[in-house]
Amino acid sequence: MSESAAAELQSLDLALARAGQNVSHNLNGQRLGRKGRETRERIVRAAIEVLHDEGEEQFTLSAVARRAGLGMSALYNYFTDLSELMVAVLEPVMDSAQETYLSILGTYWPYDEVGDCSEQFWQCYAGFWSSHAAILHQRNRMSDAGDERMLACRVEAGLPLMDGIGRQLGPEGVQEVGAEALALASVVATMMERTVTVQSQPSYRTYTRASLGSDTRSLGHAGAKLLALAITNWRDTTGG
Q1: 58: domain range?
Q2: 145: how many CB neighbours lie within 10 A of its CB?
Q3: Can you state the angle between helices 34-52 and 61-68, rounded to 10 degrees?
Q4: Is the pLDDT of residue 19 over 70?
Q5: Any residues with CB less than 8 A from the CB of 48 and at least 6 apart, and which?
Q6: What is the domain count for the chain?
């Protein structure tokens, strides 16, 4: 496992424990004590490790069980299928979004600082994706394959991003984002996700470097400029 992957696992320690506190029973209806919580956390951590080592071992329940040193029957005490396990893997990751890129959107950007704020926001969003790329790409693959729970997780993750961008479009203190502003925010958020997918996926980076002849970070700078342009143009034309 790479050093960056190991660092990510360490950063998830507290988040994993915090997320596990919301689970009181296993799937057999037994109340979770200390040992049960540790076992569940061990499974989730093993799933993250398998995802980071993708290519060495396919991401399956049996692979996770082997990595956790458990039998399949023990794993099924906590998760019925791969989709349910992925929900548990995603929970601490998406919780950290509130403390990273979404926190930047929580403060209204003054007009003369929109450019700098857009650059800071994009870098933070790209950094979040870079840190959790293996997990987020797996979510998207399962979503694209028709997994309804992963689709719901993907949509749920996008809603606060769209709402936050939408609030930057209008006047400060707006209570509800209008339909047109939300539509623009949706397009911008989709552009951002697609771009960071390219930035954080090794196979995409190979083709991008070949076509652009430069580091994929240039995509982030271009995206930040488009984000800033969308916000300032919308404010100019709507009086926001």
Answers
A1: 3-81
A2: 9
A3: 120
A4: no
A5: 8, 9, 12, 89, 134, 135
A6: 2
